[in-house]
Design goal:
55% helix; redox-active center; 231 residues; disordered C terminus; 9 helices; globular; disordered N terminus; alpha+beta; Thiol:disulfide interchange protein; Glutaredoxin
Length: 231
């Protein structure tokens, strides 16, 4: 009896999830880009999920904390990336900081520390001097090492790509999640940060199904292989 009851509630939960997912509509909880943007991932088999953020955005910090657990449940076919938004010069410095940390292999350690410094400690970290002092005191990064990374061609190139993503996705604010270069969800459309992740899960499954559907399409038979009438 207990097993049947457990199965019953499990089925109810499944139906509730399907019903909720079915309610996610294009133009309501998410938008589809008329012109998809190039994805960062090199694998066509992966579903790319880009979280667009700014260190100066408190909602971005809140979403990043929610995503810590959310990211662990994704399959191997999902490529998760963070992309710093660039609306203009004030955002450029934080974008370069992000990619400089990536260049120095410090991103995993320092990403949340930068968020905390800006959001909880009131440190703007919007110029090289303040960035250098922070990274040196917190992680022992040498001034010359940070300056090299911050001004490198690779970092500048990455910030240009991030700027192109911001424009291509027609973003008006952050945070935002872009799924497979085609679909965009933000807290306003989704109805909050937690709902953003639910809509993102729905869009990941949607993109996954689209990729699977493409793979299953059989090529058309060549003309010479068509059956000829018998004499």
């Amino acid at each position: 009896m207990n097993k049947l009851r457990h199965l019953f509630f499990l089925m109810l939960s499944l139906f509730a999830f399907i019903a909720a997912a079915a309610d996610f509509k294009e133009g309501v909880e998410y938008k589809a880009l008329k012109q998809p943007i190039p994805v960062i991932s090199s694998s066509a088999d992966k579903v790319e999920v880009d979280t667009v953020f700014w260190y100066g955005c408190p909602h971005c910090f809140d979403l990043a904390k929610l995503q810590e657990k959310w990211k662990k449940g994704k399959g191997e076919d999902v490529e998760l990336d963070d992309v710093p938004v660039i609306f203009g010069k004030p955002w450029q410095a934080h974008a370069q900081l992000f990619y400089a940390l990536e260049d120095m292999k410090l991103l995993d350690k320092a990403h949340f520390s930068v968020f905390e410094a800006v959001q909880e400690q009131g440190r703007r970290l919007d110029n090289e001097k303040d960035m250098t002092e922070f990274l040196n005191s917190r992680f022992g990064v040498k001034k010359e090492d940070f300056e090299r990374a911050y001004g490198s061609f690779g970092v500048r190139n990455q910030t240009q790509k991030a700027s192109a993503i911001t424009r291509g996705a027609q973003l008006m604010g952050v945070p935002a999640i872009i799924v497979d270069g085609k679909y965009v969800v933000d807290p306003g459309m989704a109805g909050g940060l937690e709902n953003m992740l639910k809509v993102a899960d729905f869009l990941i499954d949607k993109a996954r199904a689209e990729k699977s559907g493409k793979d299953k399409k059989a090529p058309a038979a060549p003309a010479e292989a068509k059956e000829k009438p018998t004499s």
